[in-house]
């Protein structure tokens, strides 16, 4: 008894109102992205008309509002959404633009669509990690690289110089996948001045390299375009082994194409398969991605691909580059990938959830890094609520791409582009921003609208003489935090919102979804506190004790949390009853 009293006296402090919520969705994911009633379909129409305005150059006000978008007519691109709850989204929510350059190209298609093959550049890294998650034991991720490539021991053993040498025995597949191994970024041509045509080093203030230069003379492939350097793992490893690290492992994320070339070799070593077999056997075939490949198609099939400018960017193929940036895919196939991941077709739900978490921050509050997710923390302008986007981008040669998963909505989208324009990456980034700014508020609004029709309303006890009821509503007032608001909660004649600690905290209470069990038709929600109170202290330390995740499940009655509400839903997802767990009561839905 005294312990309960102690807890209750702490409550006013612990449960100070702050819109902190839990990580994840504010509503169950929307099921309708495509019907005439869907707010997502409406926003897609809005998006495509905005794109059309930029493309035609007619809407000068639109064109002048975003410089990057005003140049989109010169970029060929394919845009597509997908959702695990609305399979029609893949077909219906697509948009394609063919630039003059591609319409007149001598090779490849002259008109792009959902089945056009693009190079996806560094989106390949996502396939490499996915294949690893599907094919490796969990312990393989933490094995030192020296186990796979014993020759690296030489560098590790000489490790009295951690500034100058990578500690290869501390580099693991997991660190490579999370871009936090600190290994050199690139290998061969990318970024190497020695490979610039007509290089005059001294004009750039760089010294001439003498033949005894301790680094470059020990690297067989630096400054060389010998194809063996891109095909032969031994030569490849020799080329990176003695270069200095960017950081010590697990210090800061540092983008590394080389890290993914090495990860590809690790996968090949563990599975005993070639890199081509790995993608085909573990991902392309099981997800029916029939137009995806780890090599460009043969010439008679080029008509299915988009090939702007010089064919060399399309047709070149190097084994060592595949796991970092060598794959090819289509809008339709990337939708299959997205649905396959979000619907747990290959990787079990728990492993998928674990995969879609950050492994490190960046120096920017808005972005974190996973394996190899580029995680964007998107903030809605109206509510300040955050949705995490799990993205992977790519840009190489004449191709740029983004693949974006929105786990909170069980949906996502991809953007594939092809162009010789030097502005390609800026333009595709601007397209991505436009898609996100248009689609995310619509997904949130659609999820809210569906939650309103599925869950809002009155629930009442059918037990004779028992005065117990719950009313839920969607709060439409300006600035109201998202979630289902508890407008009233009477239990056995008592207004719980006025009396019960925890419920009482700060009106309005809101319900956020926590666990959905499709098999049994049970959907659990948890009550969180209401709106931000400006008076609340959210200092660097004090913010922790006012966060919802900190107080979750804090008050119980007979072992059941007072914040747990379990709904029974019918096959269409509509609630028929609610069970406020601690109250041991079933309240039947009484409205319509
Ligand atoms: C698009 O390409 C054409 C032809 O190459 C060029 O004249 C024009 O300046 C480009 N437009 C933009 C906005 O970059
Ligand atoms: C996701 O999986 C469920 C259950 O297997 C299935 O009914 C649904 O059609 C899948 N979604 C899509 C878009 O394929
Ligand atoms: C993996 O690497 C180890 C160490 O170099 C080697 O002994 C083994 O044969 C390799 N396995 C495969 C399948 O290449
Ligand atoms: C088109 O492909 C052929 C080879 O099939 C090649 O000779 C030609 O140079 C290519 N055109 C361009 C613009 O790359
Ligand atoms: C269309 O999008 C613009 C900008 O994203 C937004 O201001 C406008 O309200 C949207 N209109 C509709 C009908 O969604
Ligand atoms: C709706 O939100 C407003 C603004 O946050 C708040 O003042 C009001 O109490 C809320 N109403 C309900 C029923 O939750
Ligand atoms: C309702 O409250 C009364 C006392 O006011 C009590 O006798 C009764 O057992 C309660 N019923 C339930 C179901 O809690
Ligand atoms: C149920 O209880 C509430 C709160 O005490 C009260 O306002 C209401 O009149 C009661 N309803 C009935 C039918 O007794």
UniProtKB/TrEMBL annotation:
<dbReference type="InterPro" id="IPR012338">
    <property type="entry name" value="Beta-lactam/transpept-like"/>
</dbReference>
<feature type="signal peptide">
    <location>
        <begin position="1"/>
        <end position="20"/>
    </location>
</feature>
<dbReference type="InterPro" id="IPR001466">
    <property type="entry name" value="Beta-lactam-related"/>
</dbReference>
<dbReference type="InterPro" id="IPR058664">
    <property type="entry name" value="ARB_00930-like_C"/>
</dbReference>
<dbReference type="InterPro" id="IPR051478">
    <property type="entry name" value="Beta-lactamase-like_AB/R"/>
</dbReference>
<feature type="domain" description="Beta-lactamase-like ARB-00930-like C-terminal">
    <location>
        <begin position="447"/>
        <end position="590"/>
    </location>
</feature>
<feature type="domain" description="Beta-lactamase-related">
    <location>
        <begin position="100"/>
        <end position="421"/>
    </location>
</feature>
<keyword id="KW-0732">Signal</keyword>
<protein>
    <submittedName>
        <fullName>Uncharacterized protein</fullName>
    </submittedName>
</protein>
<dbReference type="Pfam" id="PF00144">
    <property type="entry name" value="Beta-lactamase"/>
</dbReference>
<dbReference type="Pfam" id="PF26335">
    <property type="entry name" value="ARB_00930_C"/>
</dbReference>
């Amino acid at each position: 008894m005294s312990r309960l009293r102690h807890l209750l006296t702490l409550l006013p402090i612990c449960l100070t109102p702050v819109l902190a919520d839990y990580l994840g969705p504010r509503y169950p994911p929307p099921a309708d992205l495509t019907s005439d009633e869907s707010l997502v379909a409406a926003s897609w129409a809005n998006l495509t008309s905005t794109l059309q305005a930029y493309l035609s150059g007619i809407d000068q006000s639109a064109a002048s509002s975003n410089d990057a978008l005003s140049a989109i007519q010169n970029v060929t691109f394919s845009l597509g959404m997908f959702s695990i709850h609305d399979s029609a989204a893949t077909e219906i929510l697509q948009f394609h633009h063919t630039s003059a350059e591609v319409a007149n190209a001598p090779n490849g298609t002259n008109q792009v669509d959902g089945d056009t093959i693009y190079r996806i550049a560094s989106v390949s890294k996502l396939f490499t990690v996915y294949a690893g998650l599907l094919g490796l034991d969990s312990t393989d991720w933490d094995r030192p690289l020296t186990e796979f490539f014993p020759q690296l021991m030489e560098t590790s053993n000489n490790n009295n110089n951690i500034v100058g040498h990578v500690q290869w025995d501390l580099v693991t597949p997991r660190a490579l996948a999370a871009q936090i191994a600190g290994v050199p970024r690139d290998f061969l041509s990318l970024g190497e001045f020695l490979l610039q045509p007509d290089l005059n080093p001294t004009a750039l203030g760089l010294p001439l390299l003498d033949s005894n230069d301790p680094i470059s003379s020990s690297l067989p492939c630096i400054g060389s375009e010998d194809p063996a350097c891109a095909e032969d793992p031994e030569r490849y490893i020799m080329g990176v082994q003695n270069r200095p690290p960017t950081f010590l492992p697990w210090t800061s994320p540092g983008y590394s194409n080389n890290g993914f070339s090495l990860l590809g070799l690790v996968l090949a070593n563990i599975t005993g398969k070639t890199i081509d077999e790995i993608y085909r056997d573990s991902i392309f075939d099981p997800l029916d991605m029939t137009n995806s490949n780890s090599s460009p198609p043969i010439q008679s099939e080029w008509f299915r691909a988009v090939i702007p400018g010089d064919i060399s960017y399309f047709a070149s193929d190097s084994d060592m580059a595949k796991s970092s940036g060598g794959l090819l895919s289509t809008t339709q196939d990337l939708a299959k990938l997205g649905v396959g991941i979000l619907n747990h077709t290959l990787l079990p739900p728990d492993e998928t959830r674990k995969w879609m978490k950050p492994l490190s921050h960046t120096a920017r509050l808005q972005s974190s890094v996973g394996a190899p997710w580029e995680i964007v923390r998107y903030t809605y302008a109206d509510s300040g609520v955050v949705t995490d986007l799990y993205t992977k981008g790519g840009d190489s040669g004449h191709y740029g791409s983004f693949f974006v998963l929105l786990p909170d909505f069980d949906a996502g989208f991809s953007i594939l582009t092809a162009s010789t324009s030097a502005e390609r990456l800026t333009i595709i980034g601007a397209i991505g921003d436009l898609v996100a700014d248009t689609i995310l508020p619509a997904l949130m609004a659609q999820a809210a609208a569906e939650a309103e029709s599925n869950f809002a309303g009155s629930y009442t006890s059918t037990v004779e003489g028992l005065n117990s009821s719950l009313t839920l509503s969607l709060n439409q007032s300006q600035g109201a935090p998202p979630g289902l608001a508890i407008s009233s909660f009477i239990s056995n004649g008592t207004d719980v919102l006025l009396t019960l600690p925890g419920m009482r905290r700060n009106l309005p209470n809101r319900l956020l979804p926590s666990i959905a069990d499709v098999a049994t038709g049970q959907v659990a929600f948890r009550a969180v506190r209401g709106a931000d109170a400006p008076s609340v202290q959210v200092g660097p330390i004090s913010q922790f004790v006012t966060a919802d995740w900190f107080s979750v499940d804090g008050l119980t009655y007979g072992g059941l949390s007072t914040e747990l509400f379990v709904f029974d839903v019918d096959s269409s997802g509509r609630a028929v009853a609610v069970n406020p767990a601690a109250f041991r009561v079933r309240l039947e839905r009484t409205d319509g």
